[in-house]
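I have been asked to look over a protein record a colleague put together. Alongside the sequence sits a line of tokens, each denoting a local backbone shape. Please read both lines and tell me whether the tokens look consistent with the sequence. Take the sequence as given and treat only the tokens as open to question. I have pasted the whole thing underneath without changing anything:
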Amino acid sequence: MKRAIGIDEAGRGPVLGPLVMCAYAIDERKLPALKKAGVKDSKLLLPKKRRELRDMLLKEGEAIVVELNAIRITKYMRKKISLNELEAEGAAEALAKLDHSNTKEIIVDSPDPKPAKFGLRIAKYFDGPRVRAENKADYNYTVVAAASIVAKERREECIAGIKEKVGFDFGSGYSHDEKTVNYLKEHINDKKLQPFIRHCWATAKRLKVTQCPLGDWA
């Protein structure tokens, strides 16, 4: 049985919450059935359909999820380590936990406009089959779309958990979300919110986020 493996992320740009990576593996003979069922880039799916597909995908294949939380993102950015590097590490972490013995090539959606460069980043941390990075892989490959669905649903679960901890529905966590922005303006110094803010993120700086010492909440 040859296995197809795809990798994608959810939550690359938000000011609140984690970046979630997913490596998804499945018998490649099942890919046509996934496509017929409606598996496609998570951004093209409504929440209800996305959840239904996530449940099906977890039954049909194997998904490894790695959550890169806001604390880790902040630490890396303070060290001037790029988000692409962190994402490559996350992809490698997920792949290391996945059986790839019957896979010749792994496909990953590249955040870098030069995909080969991102593939080489992952290869630094992963000793396994060749990783082929492509732009819009989540749109062009069903197995990568499957990874995007699982990653997106896990990100949604993480955001729901953060809302429960802070006791407020702040929206999506993205800086283009008016609900998120208004919440940050009013609660930016709340101690319970600090671990979930990407303090060195460009969106946080635009909102004039007050930087909090990592030692206070890491």
